[in-house]
């Protein structure tokens, strides 16, 4: 009796809810493992080799983990006393300051045939710079310069220059000035054909009268395309050729650990030159570096040392004989006016 009642009730429910019933999925379901699970399982199986370290005394443990103390590279020995003797340790007394000509003569004596026997050695000027910018905690980026010194000296390197200009007379003058290859629109066609390769030349310069004709090969030149900012585009192209052929190129680089310290080492002559000629080269070099000085108070060029390998002797000269120690009042007033205008517009 109860079974029949249950069957009739089940049949009645199935008639009313047949549309709502769903079939059950009974097949096997495979779920993917979470990302990295298999990699972690494989990593557990790898055996980690532990290297045994011998006995380390207690006073030497953890020395490699100690933070390195950075020493300020802007050396200032003004607080030290001046030695009254000719022989003294530089660690405890001020460095002697020479004039540029005195430093050159001293190097000429040490490179005499009776000593180092290098009478034609190079003379270098190592210039140290304060790289602080106008704003606080801002620093100047690394910069490159090319300057023509008044007294030429052989540098044991060949420079190739590609010059673009119009006019047969101007092309002839540029070639006589020292350009490796000079030409006009026919030179552009040779570059497009591949007979002339830009990679074979160290410098690419041009005259403004041909700059529009160089647009078709701008993609090949890329960053070497002549422009005024890079100093490779000028109306006086003959002097530009001489500058690139005989000029001194240098790059000031910031220190990795001390952002406000930069230095550069530049050849300024040879010891077989007269001391006065090398001194004039030093003067032009320091003035060229001074042109990059930001409009702020304080020193820009902090120190200048004259070197001449293979001698390890470093002779300090006073750079402020050649350049100003501080900014002039006119420049400071101009920078203040610019700051006021910027603040007003903001």
UniProtKB/TrEMBL annotation:
Coiled coil: none
InterPro entries (UniProt xref): Ribosomal_uL1-like, Ribosomal_uL1/biogenesis, Ribosomal_uL1_3-a/b-sand
Keyword list, A-Z: Ribonucleoprotein, Ribosomal protein
CDD domains in UniProt: Ribosomal_L1
Entry GO terms, CC: ribonucleoprotein complex; ribosome
SUPFAM superfamilies recorded: Ribosomal protein L1 (SSF56808)
Protein family: Belongs to the universal ribosomal protein uL1 family.
Name the record gives this protein: 39S ribosomal protein L1, mitochondrial
Organism: Pieris brassicae (White butterfly)
Lineage: Eukaryota, Metazoa, Ecdysozoa, Arthropoda, Hexapoda
